[in-house]
What does this fold into?
Amino acid sequence: MVLRSGFAAAALGHAFRMSRAGPALLLFLFPFHAALAQEALANRGNDPFMQISSAIAGCTAPRGPFETEKEWLAEAHYRIERGNSCWVAGRCRLSNSYLYDREIAESVTRRLAALDAATHWRQQTSLWLTVQRRFIYVDGCVAPGFDKARFVSALGETADVETVIDRTVVKP
It folds into this structure.
């Protein structure tokens, strides 16, 4: 319950003034109101987001595609425009580049299983992938000496992937 109307705010103020436990009531309501004031983060575009490895302790999870409703609404026009631009330019077989994301996520999962058998990348990384409009974002931590170039290149070979963006950090 967010107090937006003057009536609701006045009623709360009246209850506060009339209560002998005014300060205690304020202390009770403050955390409740502060929690409500923060907007919940959600994956509003249903973009594929997955943790694919967890070998490096202490690697902070990325925010991924989670955003507030305000952020989602601010990006809505640009998301539609970016999604449709590849269709308009004749570079996509589907009408929106975001329509590829689930298929790409499934293909990447299969490709990563085969790649792990050859390189053992899971034992050297803590990684998350986000797939948005044919882009793969790689976030997380990699061990020193890990061949990021080979890993990123292998992800880029997945069908319909336009680009792979490496946002990893080296962490022993």
